[in-house]
Amino acid sequence: GVPLSRDENEHKPLSGGGASYLTSSTRDNVRLNLRENWERVQARGDASATRYNSSNLTYDERRFTQNLIYVPTDVLMLSVSGSEYRTNYTSQQRQTNGRSGRLDVDWISAGGWFTTASLSRNRFEDTQVPSERIIEAMLKLRRKWNKLDLALVFSLTERTRSGVQSVNANFQLTAVRRF
Asked: Which of 25, 34, 37, 170 fits a 20 to 30 Å CA distance from 80?
């Protein structure tokens, strides 16, 4: 589909007071949504364009997202997704850009463990603030036994901003007994 929308807001004071804190704005948006399903594959692509105009802020933005899911067996699912945006702030002579990508693998082992592994990369750029890059890997295992739910999560994140790199590792073990 191709939905179109327009939002207009006009703010006026209710009495004789000043309108210095009130702003009026318009937002025009157009989207393109594409979807396709085959026997074991699902694909989706979206694109949008937005123009926003108010007394304090004016920008044009473009967004694109894609997702592909492949289910080769009843116990395995592969997914890859990506997105990108670009925002041009005409009232501030500023531009922001962002890109992200993610790969997910979900499977159920013969022992009944439900496992999810993912790898993602995000990048943010702005003409007025330092760029940032985040890479994350995650592994999650879940299992249910009678009244016990067990979950193990391990993640590793590398963040780089202004030439400074930080690495964070996280391990979480959760056990819940249901009554």
From this structure: 170
